[in-house]
Amino acid sequence: MLSESSSVGKSGGCFPGSSSVLTPSGPKLLSSLGVGEAIASLDSAGEIVFSEVIAFLDYAPSSKRQFIRLSTSSGRQLTLTPSHLVPTEPKDLKTPSSIIYAAKVQVGDRILVRDDDRTLPGGSRVRWDDVIEAELVLEEGVYAPLTREGTIVVDDVVASCYAIVNSQTIAQVGFFPLRLLSTITDGLQSVKDFFWHSHGGQDITTNEIQGSKSMNSRWRQPEGLHWYANFLYSISTYVLPSSMLY
Hints:
Layout: H1 6-9, E1 20-23, E2 26-29, E3 38-42, E4 48-72, E5 77-80, E6 85-88, E7 98-101, E8 110-116, E9 124-147, E10 151-154, E11 157-160, H2 168-174, H3 176-198, H4 206-220, E12 224-225, H5 227-239
Antiparallel strand pairs: 1-2, 3-4, 4-5, 4-9, 4-12, 6-7, 8-9, 10-11
Protein name: Hh protein
Organism: Fopius arisanus
Domain Hint: 12-115, 123-167
């Protein structure tokens, strides 16, 4: 088990900009990812799906931060902040997975990795892989994409989008208003696009709309913790027992 300073732990969960995610068109660095893009995630059925990025819970491209790098027997490396949640194989085989902080992952634990499998509809499958090393590293760039699924596949390793609170379910419920707001915003944008086209607006492709949305969303998001994430982290000490907090 690795330890870190409390100031690092309370800053939220994130990944460095050099990490990559999988999009429908191929791998992409987190440093170039935008809101509105779809990336590989794990759904509630345990299948790899592409899920929309609705916000960045933390976004600081020029910041340097201490991360934990988990290396597996198959050569995968997941780099993330110690307070970030990671699915691990449970000791009790009656449960499908156990969510723990990255700082608590030890050599010998097993984490979920993604393999290409063209025989499956999504072209991917997940399996457990042994952790053979856990080390502290200093990396540049702080990125914490939030997908609608609440999970993310980074460098072919499955991780949660959440941190600080040691419950994927509670975190997913807590961020429901943000997902709802994103859905409403997307709906209003679709209505606007419909009226634009129906009244003789210039015809543009779906990809151009998606790209424009991504660039504009990223441009408007200030550096640092997302305001809603900051709000939830602030009230968590009052509504949750200390045993559930990092």
